[in-house]
Design brief:
Elements (H helix, E strand, L loop, with lengths): L2 E5 L3 H13 L3 E5 L2 H10 L6 E5 L7 H10 L6 E5 L4 H10 L3 E4 L4 H21 L16 E4 L2 E4 L4 E4 L2 E4 L2 H12 L5 E2 H9 L9 H13 L9 E4 L3 E4 L8
Parallel strand pairs: 1-2, 1-3, 3-4, 4-5
Antiparallel strand pairs: 6-7, 7-8, 8-9, 10-12, 11-12
Helix pairs in contact: 2-3, 3-4, 4-8, 6-7
């Protein structure tokens, strides 16, 4: 039985989510504020398999809660709910560390499907945390692992292995890196990234992409200020170069 924390200040919606998720066989706890949620997750260190997190909360909003969790290296899967569906808000949610984002009003079946997807991710990560789990061998790339310059991107478990260090990626960091890798040798525009990674087709401030690139550079570059793998293509966007020493 999976444990789910619902953080929602609208009591009728919170209880509706509790009822329907319990009908799916989950154990559900409810909090009405971000402060209460953080106390459970970080203060009391309660274990949950997923969090359904409203953005518009009294006190600390959902963005602040997600940022606090990720800063504390708590990577519980987070589904954000919000009445604000502007592309900028979606990007802010992912930048804060959310794994998925659903605008209100939402279809209940879609919400349940999104939660189930996050729970599958939690199961994958749990398996990867076992002592016998090891990074994929360096001999070949697979759809769920990519090797470059002494680094391994483990897409299935959202991890980046850099030497002896293992970094946890958010889902969107992983998907952005996957998209850039799929386009090795071809510069991609910020607009293409918004459309193909985030599914945003509206007129959006594409500079939000730059913040994600900066974070990825901190992970994979020896000198983030002088990137060699994630390079800027002036006037267009970015290009991923797995082996810069071989690029002529």
């Amino acid at each position: 039985m999976s444990r789910i924390l619902v953080v929602e200040d609208e009591s009728h919606l919170a209880e509706g989510l509790r009822f329907n998720l319990e009908q799916e066989g989950h154990s559900v706890q409810v909090n009405a504020t971000g402060e209460e949620a953080l106390k459970r997750l970080m203060g009391n260190k309660e274990e949950f398999d997923a969090v359904v997190l409203d953005v518009m909360l009294p006190g600390q909003d959902g963005f602040a809660v997600a940022r606090a969790l990720r800063a504390a290296k708590n990577y519980v899967p987070v589904l954000m709910l919000t009445a604000r569906s502007r592309p900028e808000d979606v990007l802010e949610g992912f930048a804060a560390g959310a794994d998925d984002y659903l605008a209100k009003p939402f279809n209940l079946a879609i919400l349940i499907a999104r939660v189930q997807s996050l729970l599958r991710r939690k199961i994958w990560q749990h398996g990867a945390d076992q002592p016998q789990a090891k990074p994929a061998p360096r001999s070949a790339d697979t759809p769920e692992a990519f090797h470059f310059a002494g680094k391994i991107v483990d897409f299935e478990n959202l991890r980046l292995h850099v030497g002896k260090q293992t970094l946890q990626l958010t889902l969107m960091e992983s998907e952005l890196l996957r998209y850039l890798i799929q386009n090795v040798g071809h510069p991609v525009s910020r607009k293409a990234i918004l459309e193909n990674v985030w599914g945003l087709h509206e007129d959006t401030d594409t500079r939000a992409i730059d913040n994600f690139i900066v974070r990825l550079r901190r992970y994979i570059e020896e000198e983030p200020a002088k990137p060699r793998h994630l390079v800027t293509v002036r006037g267009l966007g970015y290009e991923f170069i797995p082996f810069p020493d071989k690029k002529k």
